[in-house]
Amino acid sequence: MYRPGSTIKSKLRSPEMDAGRHSRARLGFILMSTDLAAEADFFDMAPAGVGVHITRLKTEDFTTNETLARHVDHMAEAAARLQPDTKPEIVSYHCTSGSIVNGEKRVFEEIRKGAPWAQPMCIATAVVDALQALDAKKIVVGTPYLDEINTVEAAFLNERGFDVLDIQGLNLTTGVDFGRVTPAYWKEFAQEIDRPDAEAIFLSCSGIRALEVVEEIEKLTGKPVITSNQAQFWSCLRRAGVEDKIEGFGQLFNLPFNSNGSRKSR
Q: How many degrees, rounded to 5, is the angle at CA 167 between CA 101 and CA 188?
């Protein structure tokens, strides 16, 4: 029994240790400070043994091309905060429009400055990965964005080889409002913008609650649906060598991913 003034002396022990709770992969994500959806989506999708590490990037709650372009100013600092001791295999900037406006190359350069041990990623890259895996060239796109952002996004997708049959935005300006749009509305909006010749529907933005209704939309339309959070998590998992088929989040999670930068499945 401890008595005041006495000194504690523990017995020498050899504790049993293993590779830790997240022995399969550790994924790091740089989220916007205004994002209300992505964090919950990631934890919903994460399979056993995969760690999700999150930091927040200070952002203005007014989304335009101008404000998105300022995200890179603190990108390296945000990347450096993502568990430098455990060193996530992937560190990804989690903003669809921001990764398009700033450009993948610039984003990757900034992430490498802060997390040189990690493979840099961003949503724009993941969306291209996902659409290519689905072999979908003709697409329709729904966003919460202003049309100035929709115009840049349409040009990016077209440059990457996709035919954007239509892109429609809700013309909202704040990340908080993005996250307040109901999943039921995204289901309705996806059906509204769908076209018979579209091979896939892409609901763009990390801060929207569309993941919850992906499978419902796929059943209603008979075609694959991509959301930013789903594409990001799928691509990061596959790049980290995790090939699990995960139920409940759309056709994409039944597909493998092949890349020169990916590792063999563990």
A: 120
